[in-house]
Amino acid sequence: MNKTKAKELLKNNAIWILGCALYAIGVNSFTIPNSIAQSGITGLAVVLNHLFGVPVGTVNLILNIPLLLLMWKFLGRKPLARTLWVTVLLSAALDVFSFFMPAYTGDKILASLFCGLLQGAGLGLIMITGATSGGTDIIAMIVRKYTNMNIGSALMVADSLITVAALFCFGVE
Questions:
Q1: Up-side HSE of residue 93: CA atoms within 13 Å toward CB?
Q2: Most buried residue, 3, 20, 63, 66, by CB count within 10 Å?
Q3: What's the whole-model pTM score?
């Protein structure tokens, strides 16, 4: 590995750690304590946490394993490496941050806003490096490769199904 690639890898890892930290703060401080229905595999992990008390990060990692295997089979090793690493970082951050992040339980609209800002900023940082946090992004990338559906539409379908399931768990509010 040359010096330029090493610097880029170090920079990307710093960005991924910051992105995962922001996302984990959003989940632990705002999503979980306010029973906010969110999309994606993390949203499904939050629902399972609510129903069974299982750790969100651990469940996030477990639910991502079959998706990562599908990614390897259908998209190859190159996109898998970054996504696998970021998925592990995010899952660890979700569980570690759950021990010390304060829970905001005030206004639900404000909680939703901060949740969206933190998670959006975290995912944005991850995605500007060409990585993903796994989950429904993998499904959308596979669907895009084998159909005419764009990634945004595929994500909307997958994430909508999870959000509807969360609505049944948390209620309409």
A1: 23
A2: 20
A3: 0.92
